[in-house]
C-alpha cells in the first residue's frame, strides 16, 4: 500500500517494502436479512463482525424498532466494558450467545410484539466502524385464535339474518371465510368489517336457510373454526304441520268474534239500559283482538340458534 498522505507520517522502509500503519476497519455482517419465528419459539439473531484489534474496548448495542411503533426504537441488549445490560422488559428472554467473537443474540419465548427491525451496532476502538451497523427484520408469526361467531336479524320468514365472525389474534392476519356446511356445502360471500371480522347477510330467510354455518380463520400457521346452527321453522316447534295450528287459531278467533257479535246484538235489543254495558263489551272485544293478533304474529316462524 502507498501512503497517500504524509499526515500519517509513520511509514518506514522495512526490507525494501513500504509499511504504513493503516487504521483497521471493523465490519459488521448480518448473516440473515429477515427471519421468521413462531410465537413462543426461540430465535437466534445473528450479527458477525470482523476486527483486527483485541476485544478490550468492544461495545455492542442491539436496538429494536418494533412494527407497532417504528419511529421509536428501544434498546434490547448492550455489551459495554465487559458488562451486559438488558432491557428490563426482556430480562430472562434475551442473551448474547457468542461474545466476544460474535454479537449474536438469542431471543426466547418470542412474542408478536418482538417483531420489527433489529439493528446490531458494534464498536471496537481503535478500529473504525465500516459500517459498524447491520439490520435484520424479525417477524413473529402466530396461529389464528378461536374466532367468535354470532348472528342477529329478523326471525320471520322473509326476514334477513346477519352472521358475524371475528378473530382476535393471528399473524399474518387470518383470512375469514364463511361456509354453509350442512345439509349442503356452499361457500358464502363475506363482507369484511375491518381486517379481523367478516359477516354474511342472508335475505329472505326460509326453511331452506336452516343448517350449520361455519366461519374459519386461516393463516399460514393453521385454521380455527366457529359455528352457527340456524333452525328456521315455518310452524311452532313440535307442531305436526304448518297448517293445523294456524287453522285452529283462526277457528277459535272466529268463535270469539261470533260470540261477541251475538252479545252486542243482544245488548242492542235490550235498549237504552244496555248502553253503558255495551261500551264496556266493546272494550273487551278490542282487548281480545289484540291478544289474538299477538299470537298470530309469533306463529309463522320461529328461529332457534345454538353455538357449537
Ligand atoms: C434461551 O433458551 C436456551 C435454550 O432453550 C437457553 O440455553 C438460554 O439460556 C435461554 N436464554 C435465556 C436468556 O433465558
Ligand atoms: C322470498 O322467498 C320466497 C320463497 O322462498 C319467494 O317466493 C319470494 O319471491 C322471495 N321474495 C323475495 C323478495 O325475494
Automatic annotation (TrEMBL):
Domain Ig-like residue range list: 23-139, 144-231
Domain of life the protein comes from: Eukaryota
SUPFAM superfamilies noted in UniProt: Immunoglobulin
Stated name of the protein: Zgc:165604
Pfam families, A to Z: Ig_3 (PF13927), V-set (PF07686)
Keyword Transmembrane helix: yes
UniProt entry keywords in alphabetical sequence: Membrane, Transmembrane, Transmembrane helix
Keyword Membrane: yes
InterPro entries associated with the record: Ig-like_dom (IPR007110), Ig-like_dom_sf (IPR036179), Ig-like_fold (IPR013783), Ig_sub (IPR003599), Ig_sub2 (IPR003598), Ig_V-set (IPR013106), IGSF11 (IPR042758)
Transmembrane segments: 243-267
Amino acid at each position: 500500500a502507498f501512503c497517500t498522505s504524509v499526515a500519517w507520517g509513520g511509514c518506514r522502509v522495512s526490507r525494501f517494502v513500504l509499511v504504513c500503519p493503516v487504521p483497521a476497519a471493523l465490519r459488521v455482517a448480518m448473516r440473515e436479512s429477515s427471519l421468521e419465528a413462531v410465537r413462543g419459539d426461540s430465535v437466534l439473531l445473528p450479527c458477525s463482525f470482523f476486527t483486527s484489534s483485541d476485544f478490550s474496548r468492544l461495545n455492542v448495542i442491539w436496538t429494536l424498532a418494533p412494527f407497532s411503533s417504528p419511529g421509536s426504537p428501544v434498546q434490547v441488549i448492550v455489551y459495554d466494558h465487559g458488562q451486559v445490560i438488558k432491557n428490563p422488559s426482556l430480562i430472562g428472554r434475551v442473551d448474547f450467545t457468542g461474545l466476544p467473537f460474535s454479537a449474536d443474540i438469542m431471543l426466547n419465548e418470542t412474542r408478536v410484539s418482538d417483531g420489527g427491525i433489529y439493528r446490531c451496532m458494534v464498536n471496537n476502538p481503535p478500529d473504525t466502524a465500516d459500517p459498524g451497523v447491520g439490520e435484520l427484520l424479525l417477524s413473529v408469526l402466530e396461529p389464528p385464535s378461536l374466532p367468535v361467531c354470532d348472528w342477529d336479524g329478523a326471525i320471520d320468514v322473509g326476514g334477513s339474518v346477519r352472521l358475524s365472525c371475528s378473530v382476535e389474534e393471528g399473524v399474518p392476519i387470518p383470512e375469514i371465510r364463511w361456509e354453509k356446511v350442512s345439509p349442503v356445502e356452499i361457500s358464502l360471500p363475506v363482507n369484511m368489517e375491518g381486517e379481523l371480522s367478516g359477516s354474511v347477510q342472508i335475505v329472505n330467510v326460509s326453511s331452506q336457510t336452516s343448517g350449520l354455518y361455519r366461519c374459519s380463520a386461516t393463516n399460514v400457521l393453521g385454521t380455527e373454526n366457529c359455528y352457527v346452527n340456524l333452525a328456521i321453522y315455518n310452524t311452532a316447534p313440535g307442531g305436526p304441520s304448518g297448517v293445523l295450528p294456524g287453522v285452529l287459531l283462526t277457528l277459535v278467533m272466529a268463535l270469539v268474534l261470533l260470540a261477541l257479535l251475538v252479545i252486542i246484538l243482544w245488548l242492542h235489543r235490550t235498549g237504552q239500559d244496555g248502553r253503558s254495558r255495551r261500551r264496556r263489551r266493546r272494550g273487551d272485544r278490542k282487548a281480545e283482538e289484540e291478544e289474538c293478533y299477538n299470537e298470530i304474529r309469533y306463529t309463522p316462524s320461529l328461529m332457534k340458534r345454538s353455538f357449537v
